[in-house]
Amino acid sequence: MKTPLIILFIFISGLTYGQTEETSQYHRLTVYGKAEDNGNSFHRIDTTRYPNIPGNVKRLLTNGAGLFVSFKSNSEYVKAKWCVTSRGVSPNMTAIAYKGLDIYIKNKEGKWQFAGSGNPATKECNEYTLVDHMDSSEKEFLLYLPLYDEVKSLEVGVSNAAEFQELENPFKKQILVYGSSIAQGASASRPGLAYPAQLSRSTGLNFINLGLSGSAKIEPAVADMIAPMQADLFILDFVPNSTADIVAERTESFIKKIRSEHPETPIIIMQSLVRESGFWNQEVGERVRKQNEQIGIEFKKLQDQGIKNLYFIEGKDLLGDDHEGTVDGTHPTDVGFSRMLEKIQPIVLEVLKKHKII
Amino acid sequence: MKTPLIILFIFISGLTYGQTEETSQYHRLTVYGKAEDNGNSFHRIDTTRYPNIPGNVKRLLTNGAGLFVSFKSNSEYVKAKWCVTSRGVSPNMTAIAYKGLDIYIKNKEGKWQFAGSGNPATKECNEYTLVDHMDSSEKEFLLYLPLYDEVKSLEVGVSNAAEFQELENPFKKQILVYGSSIAQGASASRPGLAYPAQLSRSTGLNFINLGLSGSAKIEPAVADMIAPMQADLFILDFVPNSTADIVAERTESFIKKIRSEHPETPIIIMQSLVRESGFWNQEVGERVRKQNEQIGIEFKKLQDQGIKNLYFIEGKDLLGDDHEGTVDGTHPTDVGFSRMLEKIQPIVLEVLKKHKII
């Protein structure tokens, strides 16, 4: 009796395996969240167009921060297959945020509601079921790409029996957020919780993530890249990566370069959040104080020159007052980001309304 | 001229290296946060004393969740050298939370204020400066051990010129928190943000972390272990890991075992938080609904039997209502934990006051 049983077992195993493969359809989708079209690329910007930007900036623009796909389906599950690089995860981030995915579904109130994460394994190519055992009503999905890794490929899988349709980008207009690791999303727990992505879901507008971890240094070549881009609003959150000297040296020409291409577009300039480590580390505390003082001076200088539609967000209290909003003294956790948004979102909304963008 | 220059370079390098080593003093300290004394061990409990508890429980009790050391010093920096295992970090956690450290300093208002993290490298033994460039006033420190890894060794380093003194455990009494991964600390961003640790800092009491990721299954052997332990309050948060059937089968005898050793000690029983994934995944939604219904039935049954000093915390809305409080649909982020604490802390405080524990 032994042989037939083994054959039966192999047969059943094969069948099950075959079924799983057979019953899923996989799709490659248009990647949204980019400042300008670059075809099917998973890079935020096609940096071959901008040979003069620094190497670090080029490298970081290959990271998936702010990128997403959108589709509708009545599948009872959504899977993803995706490949990233082999590099390790920063100790202050989750692998889900760094090299994973998360997915939102439009709920009955018309709001994007979190539904599941795509957990990466410790290898380059991953396969994961983000949400399962749903009812078979048609739903709209929003799936975010990794914040800190370069995506090499992405396929979205649903049941073979289900309907599937790619959707247009659900967000309108275009707001460019140029900033540091904090804008890029360190240390949100998952991609959809980076603060530009949160602003997109709450306003219905495209907040384009141009966060460049450690490398938002206001370089002229970056001004040359950003200034001609389509933009309804600029949010400039570069101070955390730029010394007071760099802020003094480069801010005025950076803003003027934008103004040369966008005479009226509103520009919000943010101070650095106050680094929690700086309450103890006197060097850090003093550095941030100088950076924030200098950006205030630059802002005033530009205003005094008659440059209009400039707005300023203070860094003070951006993380609340209990000192529990960061993972490492610098990078906001989801708590830190939610407190930042409590402060900056009303200001952003006010500017958007004043300029009739919403 | 080449040779002397090279020699000079080696000499300076050696000197710098030597100085760093020379100017730091390293200390091995008493590890607090344990339910019972087990000497110098970095295990939460000496499981050789409890041979009947399940293997998974034994393994998890080697994790550092809730363990900490305390000292005072006027050093301008605090370093740590620590060794953990080689195992990887869960994709829903940061390495800082899983195998790293974080440090708090008592501020001028007498509150523990976050000061820095100990970032692990991707290796077993780490060395990191948690906080640097402080003024030289004397300060009290609280340093938390990793939530999910087994610590093999820990040495705290301060300037050789500084004073250093180990401190007594700053927390009083003993509250046992028996629960799942959520109690163990997944997915707080760092060790000090696990909810029992947050309760300790806000109340001044020892909330002992007996969170057992995936393995809080109300086993009789675990009841036999926990029941005789010193406790001023029990918080039982085991529902997330226990099916409705297990809850039905084991809760009554578990509570009665505790009552046999602690006739009057208050016991708080928590429902499971509502898993965010369960708003879409019908199987998960139904499983949690049944678990929570069953623990309610067990609670009522015990009350009806005249067992006093039992309290109940509902799982509903523990994570707020915007569905943004988890990293993966199950495990709270710092946002999720802060919302949990908004709900459970007032109840815990009320019970503590009612029973004159604070």
Automatic annotation (TrEMBL), chains A, B:
Signal peptide: none annotated. InterPro entries: GxDLY, SGNH_hydro, SGNH_hydro_sf. Residues 172-348 form the SGNH hydrolase-type esterase domain. Residues 29-164 form the SGNH hydrolase-type esterase N-terminal domain. GO terms for molecular function: hydrolase activity, acting on ester bonds. Gene3D superfamilies: Galactose-binding domain-like, SGNH hydrolase. This is Lysophospholipase L1-like esterase. It comes from Albibacterium bauzanense.
